[in-house]
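Thread: 3-isopropylmalic acid complex, take 2
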Amino acid sequence: MTQTYVEKIFSNKCGKVYSAGDMVMAPVDGAMIHDITGPLAINVFKEMGGEKVFDPEKVIMLFDHQIPADSIAAAKNHVMMREFAKEQGIFNYDIKEGVCHQVVPEKGRARPGEIIVGGDSHTCAYGALGAFSTGIGSTDMGFVLKFGALYFKIPESIRLEIEGKFPKRTGAKDLILNLAGDIGADGATHKALEFYGGTVSDMDISGRMTVANMAIEMGAKAGIVPPDAKTWDYLSGRADVTPFEMTGDEDAAYAEVRHYDVSDLAPKVAVPHNVDNVVDVTEVAGRKVDQVFIGSCTNGRFEDFAEAAEVLGDGKFSDDLRVIIVPASKEEYLKVLRAGLVEKFVEAGALVEAPCCGPCMGGAFGLLAPGEVSLSTSNRNFRGRQGSTEAGVYLCSPATAAASAMTGVITDPREV
Ligand SMILES: CC(C)[C@H](C(=O)O)[C@@H](O)C(=O)O
Ligand code: SF4
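Output below.
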């Protein structure tokens, strides 16, 4: 019998052969809570009569959205969660490590074949390491904290076969924006995306994280790259793992198989106010930008900043806009720092901030005024996402962001 990768994960975890569509109560290997949704989940846990969490070692707690506390309400949430962590014996990364979706993989807390849930929609990011990981609501999270398991309807998978070599200054972000444009914001609702093909094998873990991260922008429950040597390499020294082989069978009952060739891919931009509103950069080139944000769980890694730095060369950022650079984690921040990129970006005119979500969600800082335009390497451009509902957010790759930051208008990075 053949199975998709997702069907294999659930069958292994639940000890019986299951297929897409089946409802199962599956144990979770990890439950991530952060400063925004964590307090709600803890309240639900208590309302359910919860006294002790199912396993403190499997609960991952950190603060990333509003750090350091940007309001009294945020500070109170942090206090409440710190107390809960202490009382439950949960290790709390607090404000020290960075954005949840970077920190969880980095700390070796998402592994191939595991089922991980998180109180955040981009939890699908850990699919980059072959885990079935998905975002859940706070009521479900309260239940998970108590019981360590959750009802899942095993999703059907869409098999994506990606081939070809990325042309100059295009990469993982352009690919996933292209897929979002093609599949649409609800084209994969209740399904999982499974990524295969030479392009995906060649992609480093950073690129796979960019791709898996945005699966939810097509409505998908998960976006998964089955493990290979790169996955095990990334995990060695981070987690106690023994490599194994597991992949979706080619002739499994996929909802759909789609083929893509990236050899002719152009740098892509998602235009306000929807992620699937995707065009080639050439179509919007020349539009004025007020703020450039390079960071977030989608593109806040060393590889992303190295790409931006390569485009920047010895140049400067335009005086007509603000450039905000925020590494996604302490580990990534230190890599950027040690490579001399912080100095380079600061000299070029950027603000480099400590690891956090930053302007991505219009939470802590870097908000836009009415009429302003942001160019952002993050994953969402909904109306009001980064401040005023009268502002516009364009999404792009770090290369496009850097090229545009130098000119002050949306710029094709291939021309810099
Ligand atoms: C605050 C949080 C619940 C939210 C999410 O679930 O994704 C945020 O991280 C986002 O990116 O919109
Ligand atoms: S960086 Fe943005 S997308 Fe990622 S978790 Fe934070 S707010 Fe959500």
